[in-house]
Amino acid sequence: VSETAITVIAHEDQCAGSGGCRKAAPLVFGASPDGWVVVLDRHPQQSQLSDVLEAHDVCPVTAIEVLDAEGESLA
Ligand code: SF4
To answer: Pick from 16, 54, 72, 73: CA 20 to 30 A from residue 1's CA?
Structure first.
């Protein structure tokens, strides 16, 4: 099992630009100049998992997916 077991996907086309994700997990999510979500780190360390899951939870449009090493959805 690799250290980079998490995969983060953000559906920019669904993003509402609220900024909650980058507040919850600033190492993993940023924003484009227009304010839409940008994934800064598609395979964050396991230590980022709780922040990433919080980002998923605060996203008002469920634009964030979190997958484990097997591609199973964690959120
Ligand atoms: S929390 Fe959701 S809607 Fe808000 S910026 Fe992040 S992806 Fe976009």
So the answer is: 54
pTM of the complete model beyond 0.85: yes
User: Burial level of 56, CB count in 10 A (0-12/13-18/19+)?
Assistant: buried
Buried b or exposed e, range 13-49, using 16+ CB within 10 angstroms: eebeeeebbbebbeebbeeeeeebbebebeebeeebb
Per-residue pLDDT, averaged over 39-48, amounts to 95
Q: What are phi and psi of 22, to 5 degrees?
A: -75, -20
Ligand 1 centroid from CA 9, angstroms: 12
Q: Whose CA is nearest to atom 1 of ligand 1?
A: 59
